[in-house]
Amino acid sequence: MKIAMVGSGYVGLVSGACFADFGHEVVCIDKDEAKVARLRDGVMPIYEPGLAELVESNARAGRLSFTTSLAEGIAGAGAIFIAVGTPSRRGDGHADLSFVHAVAEEIGAALTNDCVVVTKSTVPVGTGDEVERIIADSGCTHRVAVVSNPEFLREGAAIGDFKRPDRIVIGAEDEFAREVMREVYRPLFLNESPILFTGRRTSELIKYAANAFLATKITFINEMADLCEKVGADVQDVARGIGMDNRIGKKFLHAGPGYGGSCFPKDTLALLKTAEDYDSPTRIVEAVVKVNESRKRAMGRKVIDALGGAEAARGKRVALLGLTFKPNTDDMRDSPAIAIAQALSDAGIAIAAYDPEGMELARPMLPQVEMCDDPYQAIEGADAIAIVTEWDAFRALDLDRVKSLANAAVMVDLRNIYRPEDMQRQGFRYTSIGRG
Ligand code: NAD
Question: Quick one: 2-198 is in which CATH superfamily?
């Protein structure tokens, strides 16, 4: 089947390349001319492990191509996916649907055949109805079914997640749509990946409910970590102790500096707005959003405390190791590093940083931070080292070298990648998260 993917970012590009790898003919469309030109030259616009190879092999096999022309890209496609951004709308936190609506208008005006239009972007309940209306209003005479098919991939593990998903959720209102979607996902269906068919509104809500639940799990263990520090308990053992209960599960119970990234912050806010609009408050999610927001800045205070408090910290220098919201991505959207760096510079602290993949995107967001070529350059002359993202490259630092380069052997490990007893033995003043 020919598949068109409108939007070639983290989700569109990975999904498009994976569908091509399943044997479909895929055209990835993006309005960003520079991005499309680079993709045609085999240069990836994002960092995602394995993506360059997947794109290259499928492009070479003639199954994957790139264009800026939506009309050209969707011609003859049986399924047209919308995978454009849905960021928080400035001012009120609603999902900004302007990109989705603009694409729906363009599709309506350019369609040449019957097809299914699939929203892969994360969109609030009712967006499918609106997309359907926009396409109908464009005067399009072809049979078009609008489907919701939210994406659950994780950056950094996106290809594996797409090809071996826990489940595929498809919200469709008629049999024609379900038939086309079965064909799109046939390779996964044969692999016995569970496919859950629901109504369109239900499917749209599933995505928000999933992200809000995961954000809640993270925030819950983060609050437990604070309590552990007060009572002298170890949050990692608490997480293990509760996670071994199958009803709870062990994933998303890693205490840290608060969730960030391109999804949880904006999706929890958007869910609150939907709940407000329908007069059905989701108070748990409200609390999660508040707790997480204040936590990121509190992590800055944790570093300041390790420097001896606000008075002593002024004029000092801190090395931040890791800037992206998680390892194996270059994505800086809503990374806790942003709030932490802000809190530190507000306190008159100089910052040097290193991140294996995130510095290009971080540079304009953190103009006050000196970007370094490697972790040791950032550590040179630092009065404290803060581990913000758990990249593998930071798990086995040469601690003798760290001590000789740093001004003081002070480490604040916001990801608990070292063991307190080892660090003490090495002569570090070591603080971590939720370990008494
Ligand atoms: P992104 O910003 O990386 O990519 C969006 C792309 O769409 C950009 O390249 C942009 O140029 C393009 N675009 C915008 N308007 C266009 C138009 N009119 N025509 C053609 N191209 C257009 O976004 P993303 O991270 O891939 O997220 C896309 C959607 O998927 C969002 O709704 C997001 O919430 C959801 N999602 C993201 C992830 C993730 O891990 N990033 C996971 C699951 C779901």
Answer: NAD(P)-binding Rossmann-like Domain (3.40.50.720)
Q: Give tens-digit pLDDT for 140-165.
A: 999 999 999 999 999 999 999 999 99
Q: What is the DSSP letter of 401?
A: H
Distance 161 CA to ligand 1 centre (A): 17
Say if pTM beats, i.e. exceeds, 0.85: yes
Atom of ligand 1 nearest to the CA of 267: 34
Q: Among 66, 72, 105, 262, name the best residue to mutate to test ligand 1's pocket (greatest count of ligand atoms within 8 A of Cβ).
A: 262
The residues near 91 (Cβ < 8 Å, ≥ 6 apart) are: none
Residue 92, C-beta contacts closer than 8 angstroms, at least 6 positions apart:
273
Tell me, in angstroms, the distance from the centre of ligand 1 to residue 305's CA.
Answer: 39
Helix (H, G, I), strand (E, B) or coil at 317: strand
Q: Is 263 considered catalytic here?
A: yes
Q: Atom 34 in ligand 1: which residue has the minimum CA distance?
A: 122
Give the pLDDT confidence of 369-417 residue by residue, as tens digits.
999 999 999 999 999 999 999 999 999 999 999 999 999 999 999 999 9
Q: What's the CATH architecture for 200-436? A: 3-Layer(aba) Sandwich (3.40)
- What tokens does 192 get? 């016995």
